């Protein structure tokens, strides 16, 4: 009898253990809306650190990757329930004197992101619309792409990039 109870307990715990081992790299859940908890999950599954939440809205996370690059994930087109139908991803730099020709060049050279300037901020962003659904894994891929492109886009936008 005791063996049956132990075996049943082990079998009941196994699916939970398997779920806990999932990472964003094999997360095939389809999401059509995103919450603050989802954004936090993306950051932690990527192995990054959450610095704060609610920075640019209720559904937003300020995070940092292992190289110290700070970024923001912001839910957009949100309803009253805290569920959002879009995600804006941003890396922001402080720039004293913008070179608008170079910023335009960065936009052309890195079409996967938008490079923009406002005040003293040079931003590199990527926007996702979730209406038709997207795998959670793809959301992580998009964050990784932004973080890979942002430093080079900043160099191009400030005229510091080595010619390709």
From TrEMBL:
The keyword Signal appears for this protein: yes
UniProtKB keywords: Signal
Source superkingdom: Bacteria
Signal peptide positions on this chain: 1-20
Official protein name in the record: YbjN domain-containing protein
Organism: Ponticaulis profundi
Phylogenetic lineage: Bacteria, Pseudomonadati, Pseudomonadota, Alphaproteobacteria, Hyphomonadales
């Amino acid at each position: 009898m005791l063996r049956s109870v132990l075996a049943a307990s082990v079998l009941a715990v196994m699916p939970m253990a398997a779920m806990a081992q999932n990472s964003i790299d094999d997360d095939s859940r389809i999401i059509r809306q995103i919450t603050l908890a989802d954004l936090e999950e993306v950051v932690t599954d990527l192995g990054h650190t959450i610095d704060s939440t609610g920075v640019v809205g209720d559904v937003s996370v300020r995070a940092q990757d292992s190289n110290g690059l700070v970024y923001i994930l912001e839910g957009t087109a949100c309803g009253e329930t805290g569920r959002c139908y879009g995600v804006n991803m941003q890396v922001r730099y402080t720039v004293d004197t913008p070179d608008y020709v170079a910023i335009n060049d960065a936009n052309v050279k890195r079409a996967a992101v938008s490079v923009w300037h406002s005040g003293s901020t040079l931003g590199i962003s990527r926007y996702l619309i979730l209406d038709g659904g997207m795998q959670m894994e793809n959301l992580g891929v998009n964050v990784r792409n932004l973080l890979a492109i942002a430093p080079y886009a900043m160099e191009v936008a400030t005229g510091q990039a080595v010619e390709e």
